[in-house]
Design a protein that fits this description.
Blueprint: H1 2-18, E1 22-28, H2 31-47, E2 50-56, H3 61-68, E3 74-78, H4 85-91, E4 97-101, E5 113-115, H5 130-141, H6 150-159, E6 163-164, E7 167-168, H7 170-181, E8 185-191, H8 201-206, H9 220-229, E9 235-236, E10 239-240, H10 248-260, E11 269-275, H11 281-293, H12 297-306, H13 309-332, E12 340-342, E13 346-349, H14 359-368, E14 377-383, E15 388-395, H15 397-401, H16 406-417, E16 420-423, E17 427-433, H17 437-451
Parallel strand pairs: 1-2, 1-3, 3-4, 4-5, 13-14
Antiparallel strand pairs: 6-7, 8-11, 9-10, 12-13, 14-15, 15-17, 16-17
């Protein structure tokens, strides 16, 4: 349980407390990595350490070689490093002190300090995120002084899709209980709809398609009528109200009206986690993820530390436009078999029209919204600035439950195509030479076909 990780964190905590040289903090650019970086940033700041930090998209061999030449004498990796542990051992560990706080499948344990739940028998894909691991490191450094950082651990876990049916599981569940008990998040059961705190109520209802609400899903007029029939005002002081603006009695009225209308409300009821800043945790993690995908991950650190509402709105709008553009590409090219097609898996070839930062998000949304018919996995492809290809893959949840591990499969394929990659059982990625695209697709398709 959590105590296992705290015990394992002691060597890293002691090293950080006693070290008096320069430190380089390196994090990854998604919501989990930005959250983990923020936790580590505050932990080092409170220790009075001399440090610089950077957030990277991925860490390939050239990146490890670059870090080996940096002036800092200790490198702290968060949400990155386990999947590159052989390279870190080869290029850095002999000359610098290294601490890795990660949750991805590790290649090796190495001679450096390596915190990873897999070494303790926990699945890093769902039991705990890198932000959770780094929070427990901060707690091992100073339990009382760093207890407020726990909220970032839950933002990271949420961004890494580590809630199941709206609830944290594994080690994350213990962290969530601690956060609730200490008042850093609040929790109550309610309608778990998209845009709970950021969208007008009728928009949240019309965007609900799983389950499909006949007459309401994709029908704003029908959604408005449903709300009015429940006796709930859509506006307050001239502005549209969000679901989060309803008091508990109003939300109960809406739930009762939905039940009367024959809708499957039970599947929409989950524990809702609210942060102190008024945001529901799922939506706030999306904002942090947006900063990384937009190439501005340090803005995510700033938002976590300051709750700058102007910056939050700016990044959300910018992200929404980019996602819409990327999804339009998929819809507009659905009949172009050179770009969007199915084998055993679904393939979205974004070429240079979908940026590498957004191909993973497009793959995730396309997997969840049923764009392809009952396929076991989706693979997205995008051209990169260094003339390679970014691969992002997502697997069907049932396939994963039956033993599919995308991270392992993609790691093996990369060895054959001179690429680098890996990841979790449900989501994984790679960077490969452009001329190996068809070989990669064929191997991934064949590997999935064997398991169907």
């Amino acid at each position: 349980m959590v105590q296992d990780v705290l015990d394992a964190a002691k060597p890293a905590a002691e090293k950080l407390k006693e070290f008096d040289g320069k430190i380089r903090l390196v994090g990854q650019y998604d919501a989990d990595g930005i959250s983990a970086t923020t936790i580590a940033h505050e932990m080092l700041e409170r220790l009075g350490k001399d440090f610089e930090y950077e957030i990277v998209k991925q860490l390939y061999e050239e990146g490890v070689e670059r870090l080996a030449e940096c002036e800092e004498e200790l490198i702290l990796f968060v949400d990155i490093g386990s999947g590159q542990s052989e390279l870190i051992e080869e290029h850095i560990a002999g000359d610098k002190q290294v601490i890795v706080s990660d949750h991805h499948e590790p290649q090796i344990e190495g001679s450096f300090i390596h915190m990873n739940p897999h070494f303790l028998g926990y699945d890093g894909g769902e039991a705990i995120s890198a932000a959770g691991m780094t929070y427990l490191l901060a707690k091992a450094v100073n339990a009382e002084g760093n207890k407020d950082l726990i909220r970032f651990a839950l933002v990271g876990a949420t961004g890494d899709v580590q809630k199941q049916d709206g609830e944290f599981i594994g080690l994350n569940s213990e962290i969530a209980e601690e956060a609730v008990e200490n008042g850093f998040v609040s929790r109550r059961q309610g309608l778990d709809l998209y845009g709970r705190t950021t969208k007008p109520l009728q928009k949240s209802l019309m965007y609900t398609t799983d389950p499909y609400l006949e007459g309401v899903s994709n029908n704003e007029g029908g959604a408005i009528q449903l709300v009015k029939s429940a006796g709930i005002d859509l506006r307050e002081d001239g502005d549209f109200r969000s679901l989060a603006d309803l008091d508990e009695d109003e939300e109960r009225k809406l739930i009762h009206r939905m039940i009367e209308s024959g809708y499957d409300v039970q599947s929409l009821l989950n524990d809702i986690y609210m942060l102190e800043n008024g945001y529901e945790i799922d939506e706030f993690s999306t904002v942090i993820n947006a900063c990384g995908r937009l190439g501005e991950p340090k803005k995510g650190v700033e938002i976590l530390l300051t709750n700058d509402e102007t910056l939050i709105n700016k990044m959300s709008r910018k992200y929404g436009r980019k996602i819409s553009e990327s999804l339009r590409y998929v819809e507009n090219n659905k009949d172009d078999e050179d770009r969007i097609y199915e084998k055993t898996i679904g393939i979205i070839d974004g070429k240079d029209d979908i940026s590498e930062e957004f191909i993973g998000t497009v793959a995730t949304i396309s997997m969840s919204n049923g764009f392809f018919d009952e396929i076991p996995a989706i693979m997205g492809v995008a051209e990169t600035e260094d003339e390679k290809l970014k691969i992002s893959s997502r697997a069907d949840k049932k396939m994963v439950e039956d033993g599919l591990n995308l991270g392992e499969i993609i790691g093996e394929i990369c060895e054959d195509v001179d690429g680098e990659g890996g990841g979790h059982n449900v989501a994984a990625g790679a960077k490969i030479p452009q001329d190996q695209k068809q070989e990669f697709i064929d191997q991934l398709d064949a590997a999935i076909a064997e398991r169907v």
